[in-house]
Amino acid sequence: MRPPSVDDLRLPALALVAWGSALLAVLAPAWSAVPVVAVVGMVWARLRRRGRDTTTLLVWVCCGVGVVSSVLLRVDGVGSGPVADLARQRAVVQVELVTTSDPVLRPGRFGDVVLVRARVEQVSGRGRAHAVRAPVLLLGDTAWSRVELGSRVETSGRLAPPRSRDLAAVLGPRGPPRVVDVPGPLLGGAAALRASIREAVADRPPAPRALVPALVDGDDTAMPEGVAEDFRTAGLTHLLAVSGTNLTLVVGSLLLLARWAGVRARGLLVVGLLGVAGFVLLARTEPSVVRAAAMGVVGLLALGSHGRRQATRALGAAVLGLLLLDPWLALSAGFALSALATAGIVWLAPAWRDRMVRWVPRWVAEAVSVPLAAQLACTPLVAALSGQVSLVAVLANLLVAPAVGPATVLGLAGGVVGLVWPWLGAVVAAPAAWCASWIVAVAQRAADLPSASASWPTTALGLTLLSLTCLAVTVLLGHVLARRTTSVVLASLALVALLVPLPSPGWPPRGWVMVACDVGQGDALVLRVGPGRALVVDAGPDPAAADRCLRRLGVEDVPLVVLTHFHADHVDGLAGVLRGRRVGAVEVTGLAEPAGGAREVARVAAAAGVPVQRATYAGTRRLGDLEWQVVAPAGPPPAASESPPNDSSVVLLVRTRGVRLLLMGDEEEASQSRLLRETGGIEADVLKVAHHGSASQDPDLVRATGARLAVVSVGEDNDYGHPAPSLSALLRDAGMRVARTDRDGDVAVVVPAGGSGPAVVGSRD
Q1: Where in this chain does the record put each Metallo-beta-lactamase domain (predicted)?
Q2: Which residues of the chain have pLDDT under 70?
Q3: What is the rounded distance in angstroms from the CA atom of residue 440 to the CA atom of residue 211?
Q4: Cα–Cα distance between 138 and 159 in angstroms, integer?
């Protein structure tokens, strides 16, 4: 395979310059003229030196100036109009807007919140009316979940400044939406087809039922959280979102049908363009979909004659065009991953495939080389975003590759047929659901492997080392894949490494009785019951983090999960606790607030077949090495409580191996004082500090415990200033040794065999 020529690389090089210019213009507008001046200077010098190639060089200048100008105009237009001015004043306004995204339901701190992106076209506030075109993010109640994409809506509410520079404001509407115009026929037809695709697989099990629409049009709203986490661990997340693969499969199948029907030459071009437009309408005209469509077109070009040369140029043109249309894509991790994956497939996969065809069939070579190239190209960025390197991604993608195409194409066909004959649509889509079941099974099995992923430092040194490693692998892999014996031996060694757990020297420490997992700004405690068994108190905000902590501890059986209250930083990781483990029950507090958190817990537990029950006050229970008692809440939160969910947190007193642990939830100072009055003081050897070390602490309760160790479960560089300096001083004055998850990683409380009292060990020690 001949490498790309200099001419082939001109557009990709220009795209990289444009990308860097867009980043600089978005992050530091005052410096954005630097790359333009530099390019103009280089062009001028070259023109004077050579006196030719003027057309190409002038195109470079125009493109560079165009990208930076586009960024500056968009940034200025979004941040300086009437909507942005009113947002800075936090004005109450009357608006007419058009929704530009589907409503997304999210559990909030005080109830469910619906997020909708919209374009404000009329705004009235502070005594003046304006005609505008300003992007906003709307945070509404559940009534907004029924508003369709493309609807024209009138509403009133308060504007606030946004955190993102691609928005003019955040709008908090008052009351339900008043829809004055429904979406047009194109968007309406696309919505009908999306609904028909869901209906065609409605009688299938939950995971395949959710995966088929995700494969066809990126609709993953019904995907169980535990299954979604399996896909992330297995390196299959791209199947749950709109990607270039979706478009390649859909439009590629359409082109095959057109060719079979006798369409040729320009007719195929027209069919392809119509297919791309239809796909964008079906999957929604959002930036991520437009990005995926562009990358999918590049993938289609790579399949044709002279595919590598055409796709190389098309990739550069796609990146450049997308940045001109939406300069904020320069900051998008999804955009970067999509571009990297496409570049890997275009530049690496063909050469590796051609070397492998010497000893394997062509379809096998392509099935191995394509996911391998995409994964290797994306690995450094994925590690930077997640702190993990997937070790099963290539194997998982190889196993699901034969099923992705049929599931996507037949799922779409079932939806199309279902618009006319719903029963026949279900028949057509049945094989799609079977293929989706296989994909789900592969994701679950891959995620359950002992070495499915490995943690990786996200420091500059760590990421540089990983990038250099990937570069070295890229250089060497072509020589390896050309040799049958070497390839088989290395593949066998990699398979053994995946199936055999990697040793974790010194962790968990001998004699551990409790571990506070490092899950960021949240709580997740693991209490040892016996070998491979543990009671879990809270699950933190992230399923992946909770799952990783339990895996490191070798916990496979969880007789009981106690969720102290329903805030997201304590319950959102529940799916990670339940994944791949035997779980007996989930116990919760009596106050089901916020309601969104309570519903999410019920949904996740029901999907796993785990019962949810209320924790019983004052009851004492025993299991293995553990004995525990619920010592709060004894009743409803105080009438003057500033946070009833926090003040309704379950508090546990645990005894194990002669050590007493007091596990506080997020109680505020008033409820801590009430606990002290009602109990007369609770003595403990270890105190799990309330509310991540906030300043709202009752000093008398803290001192009354007489604890020698204090554990603070807190996120690194959190926005709350936890642990508060006053709390740190209080613990120090009480003579307690303090361990913190932000500083020490996973924190283990250890009881030595000699019975000398509890000690503490951090995973970073």
Answers
A1: 521-706
A2: 1-9, 28-68, 70-72, 74-77, 107-111, 225-226, 242-249, 265, 285-288, 299-308, 450-452, 494-495, 497-506, 754-756, 765
A3: 8
A4: 9
Helix (H, G, I), strand (E, B) or coil at 520: coil
Tokens of 212: 């088929």
Please give the Cα distance from 289 to 277 (Å, whole number): 11
DSSP letters for 634-671: -SSPPTT-S-HHHHT--EEEEEETTEEEEE--S--HHH
3-state class of 96 per DSSP? strand
CB 765 within 8 Å of CB 744: yes
How is the beta sheet containing 686-688 ordered, strand by strand? 620-623, 626-632, 651-656, 659-663, 686-688, 709-712, 737-740
The string of DSSP codes covering 454-473 is: EE---SHHHHHHHHHHHHHH
CATH superfamily of 87-183: Nucleic acid-binding proteins (2.40.50.140)
Return the sign of the alpha-carbon dihedral for residues 348, 350, 354, 356: positive
Token pair belonging to 32: 């954005």
| Residues 579 and 447: beta-carbon distance below 8 Å | yes
Which residues are CB-contacts of 491 (< 8 A; sequence separation ≥ 6)? Answer: none
Spatial CA neighbour of 516 closest among 488, 549, 487, 489: 549
Q: Where are the domains of the chain?
A: 10-79, 87-183, 188-481, 512-762
Q: How far is CA 215 from the centre of its chain?
A: 17
The Cα diameter of the chain in Å comes to 91
- Output the 3-class SS for 34-77: HHHHHHHHHHHHHHHHHCCCHHHHHHHHHHHHHHHHHHHHHHHH
Give per-residue pLDDT as tens, 121-171. 999 998 889 999 899 999 988 889 888 888 899 999 999 998 877 888 999
Q: How far is CA 472 from the centre of its chain?
A: 29
